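Why do we care about 3D structure at all? Because function follows from shape, and shape follows, mostly, from sequence. That is the central idea of this module. The next example makes it concrete: a single protein chain, its amino acid sequence, and then its structure expressed as tokens.
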Amino acid sequence: QGRLVESGGGLVQTGDSLTLSCEPSELTISGYGMGWFRQGPGVNRQFLAGISWSATTTHYAESVRGRFTITRDIAKNTVYLTMNSLKPEDTDVYYCARSRVGLGDEFYEYDYWGEGTQVTVSS
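And the structure:
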């Protein structure tokens, strides 16, 4: 069964930057839109950013627009989320996912997910 593998999470301080990576394992992401979500305890998974299969189109949730940047390296088959000016409220588990619909922002539009990577921002 194919899956996605996130990495790059950790403990940082307010104002720091962090870049998360997402790579496929026995799964094709070439030709698919990709997205990043986050989820905290007891809340729904929140869309953060999406990128088209060609990396030419991106879109963001208003809450992170201007601070977070999604990119993908097609040759390396990797998707990234660069997060700047991190705040304590950004503390969550971050997930990458493969889109079934090209460039969606709803969790049900994504068919494969990683297990998540924890990001903790201290004040």
